[in-house]
Write a structure and sequence with these properties.
Radius of gyration: 22 Å
Largest sheet: 6 strands, parallel
Order of helices and strands: HEEHEEHHEHEEHEHEHEHEHEEHEH
Number of domains: 2
Strand order of the largest sheet: 10-9-8-11-12-13
CATH superfamily of the largest domain: Glycogen Phosphorylase B
Shape: globular
Number of helices: 12
Length: 391
């Protein structure tokens, strides 16, 4: 559950077991209350940038043994892993991000190193895309599916399985229950407008500095508007680096930027906000956008991959620009009520033309049902291939 891309599968495990499936998990860790057979992969290399390669080699060994014990099993994984999955969930495409990264200004040495490692991941994934002719590819969005069909061996095996959210936590009732208390805890006044930004990491890719520059410009040029920026997520080390850079570039940042760090319950903080501001350069179908939309927040999103799955322009949000100067103007129009979403209600701070929508995102039960159909299809295909091989 620590991984946003794995939450959907973890939520679906009980439904799969109820349907008669035996689930084996090969991972570094797993939630203790999941009724699954678990093969732990121990970390042997402590350097974060290189430990993945050792993990991949051990996965390969475990999967080889697993295939011997369960020849008709369905292997579910992600591209680039060394096991030729029968069903592969595609939550990210490294080669697209590498192309998009050329447009991101201000890349630091640390970012460049991660991009170098991303190239290695992209090469592994490319081999899987070109060689794996048996896989059912499950892209999280239509735009990612379109990119996949250009590179996989069998484009007809690409389907869309949208990301899901926990509707028991992310709903309008949670806002009614949490909003006032959380705003008081954060020392926000009733009329303070709060833009939320949610990221576990990769802040530059997700447009953190674009948002900062646009908001700082807005505050300087339009002093009557004093929005706050609530930054949810991020490890202590990451946030320390961000604060250090902010201290050099934005003198008054402590007055309007608020870091809350890693949040086990991000809905608490999203409920305190008034809109999600995410000028990201690349996503696939961002979970933060889904969760914010389920809580009734207007979405201010750049036209990155996956927005076609959730953003209804002029209805549940607005398409914004990557250029900080243009974005600053768009934020002013939004706050002043001159955007197509209309004036802000003085009490709720919601635009009058705003309508809540999660687009094509799935709730937990919908995701489990859809995943089960794909797995059953994969099982029938594999059983047929094994029968043909035996004959």
């Amino acid at each position: 559950m620590d991984s946003p891309t794995m939450k959907h599968l973890v939520y679906a495990v009980p439904a799969l077991i109820d349907a008669g499936w035996l689930v084996n998990v090969i991972a570094e860790k797993v939630e203790p209350d999941l009724p699954v057979e678990f093969q732990r992969i121990e970390r042997r290399i402590q350097l974060p940038m290189f430990e993945k390669f050792g993990v991949l080699n051990r996965v390969k060994k475990y999967l080889r043994d697993f295939r011997i014990r369960y020849p008709d099993a369905i292997v579910f994984g992600t591209p680039g892993m060394p096991y030729g999955a029968d069903v592969s969930a595609v939550h990210f495409l490294q080669h697209i991000w590498l192309r998009m990264s050329r447009t991101v200004p201000g890349m630091e040495l640390r970012d460049q190193v991660w991009l170098l490692l991303a190239r290695l991941d992209a090469r592994r994934a490319a081999k899987e895309f070109h060689c794996n002719r048996k896989a059912i590819w499950l892209a999280v969005s239509e735009s990612i599916a379109a990119e996949l069909r250009r590179i996989v061996a069998r484009p007809e095996m690409v389907y869309v399985l949208p990301n899901s959210y926990d509707e028991s936590r992310f709903n309008l009732g949670a806002v009614d229950r949490l909003r006032s208390r959380k705003r008081a805890e954060l020392n926000f006044r009733a009329k303070d407008f709060i833009f939320a930004f949610l990221s576990q990491g990769h802040h530059r890719r997700k447009g953190f500095w674009v948002a900062i520059e646009a908001l700082a410009h807005l505050r300087q040029e339009k002093p009557a508007y004093d929005p706050h920026f609530l930054v949810i997520g991020g490890t202590p080390g990451t946030l320390q680096r961000l604060k250090h850079t902010l201290s050099r570039q934005v003198q008054d940042w402590r007055e309007w930027i608020h870091f809350v760090g890693t949040a086990g319950h991000p809905e608490d903080y999203l409920a305190a906000a008034d809109a999600l501001l995410l000028p990201s350069y690349f996503e696939a179908f961002c979970l933060a956008e889904i969760e914010a939309a389920a809580l009734g927040l207007p979405l201010l999103l750049t036209p990155h991959y996956g927005t076609e799955m959730i953003l209804e322009h002029f209805r549940n949000g607005l398409t914004i620009d990557w250029d900080p100067a243009v974005l600053s103007k768009q934020l002013f129009e939004f706050l002043s009520g001159t955007s197509p979403l209309g004036e802000l209600d003085p009490v709720t701070l919601r635009p009058r033309n705003f309508k809540t929508s999660v687009g094509r995102a799935l709730n937990r039960s919908q995701y489990g049902s859809a995943l089960l159909e794909f797995l059953e299809t994969a099982y029938e295909r594999r059983a047929g291939m094994l029968k043909a091989d035996f004959a």
